[in-house]
Amino acid sequence: MPAIVLKSHIMPGGQQFDQQHLGQRIADARIEAELTQADLAAAIDLDRTAVVKIEAGSRRVSAVELGRIAAALGRPLDWFLVEGPPAVVSRRTDAGAGQRSVPLDRAVEKVASDVEFLMEQAIFSPAAIDLRLEPPRDLPEAERAAERVRAAVQPDGGPLLGLGEVAEQLGVLCFALPLGDRGGDGAYVSIGDAGVAVVNGNTEAGRRRFTLAHEIGHHVFADEYSTDLSVADVGSEMERRINGFAVHLLLPRGSFTERWRMLSGEPREKAIRLGVEYRVSWSALCSQLKSLGLASEAEHQVLLARPPTRADYLELGMGFVEELHPPSVPRSYARAVLGGYRAGKLGANRTIDLLWGSITKEDLPELVALPIEAYQREFDPLP
Amino acid sequence: MTALVFNTSPLSHFARAGRLAVLDRLTAAYRRVVPQAVLDELRAGEPMHPPLADVRNAGWLEIVACDGLAELRAFAHYVRVLGAGERDIGEASVLAWAEVNSGIAVIDERAGTQAAQARGVAVGPRDPLAHRERPERRRAAPV
Fold it and tell me: Mean pLDDT across the stretch A233-250?
């Protein structure tokens, strides 16, 4: 699970962005979308020769065409034109080391660009407690870091419920999006002081929380190591420590152990109860029981082999509360976007787009009429 | 010559009323421009409102592609404000072309008007005919 640096959008040597760059950007996006020039041409109702010329920079692209190209290639329109910041993305996909997920990449890029835009337009300014820690050098340090973060957000101990809101307090904006089977687990990118986490909402609920806890780790550790890719091992070793951080953030040694000892009954039933209380996946729970010495290796194997069923939950009278259901966006972000819409700073379609379809046009608040003074210009003669 | 850049609704209102010629006379002192995206939108409305075809045949309206890099950049900005629906694309082209070519955007959408003003783009009267001919009525019955 190494960190990966996303391709930079900065033009080398401060070159002027010109028609060739625009064409190149279109070609890059087309290739990444695994389309041929003929496929793209068909999708946007142009001849293939026109696409060839556009990509070579020898034919201009109209606004309408660019709109169609962006839609066909699944990229935000401005991606083709704006020289974005070098987006340093660290990600974890348990599918295998270094494996890229195109849906995840796209989602991160779009979220990052949207958040940046809203900040530029003074529509959104994330507020968070400033908690940055040194990257842990080993697993005990990772656990201590988790304790410090918990002390800041959950001084009473106990389960961290509503992890999306907890993340927001810490300056991590979490977007849980439906990225599908090939969407990986999640990714993190920092934008100024804010951090953005994209979590694949199509993974299992406990795993989504674990992914977010992991991304919180990237945020508080300032994630500087991820720019250093020269030593691949450093990345994966650090990922392992950040996983350790995530486990201890969700299942803290002290209060978790105490709760385990307090419960009576056979181990599997206790484990199911704690899984529900702490809202973690069965595998994360079992492995923490083992690493805290609450279950032996043999007990761990037995537990792992028998994950809870729906019948188990019914019998215990418990339900697993699912957080980070897709699509969900951070609360402060949603408030800001809707505020921008009310203030006339964002159009209806853009508002829905920014909220990832978590609301429909019918849900949009009715707009308060502008004061009459706002129409003053209408009575002015034409210049 | 300053350009008036028309969005869909003013053209649609005049065309559907069969009075496109009046709009021509009223705005004769200007260069009159319509982005291709707006024409596309009007064309899509023709089956429902056949008089919209008059816009396509109005020789005094200059069709612009909005395809320079500066225009595309401005266009991308307005799409980020308005969205990328069909109507948004038309409106964003109007604003982008007006911004780059120092034209006056003739639009009547709220978010678009604010976005234009935030970037110093002149926004024209929502309805030049009402403004010129019936100022009293307009004042008496604000929107």
Answer: 85
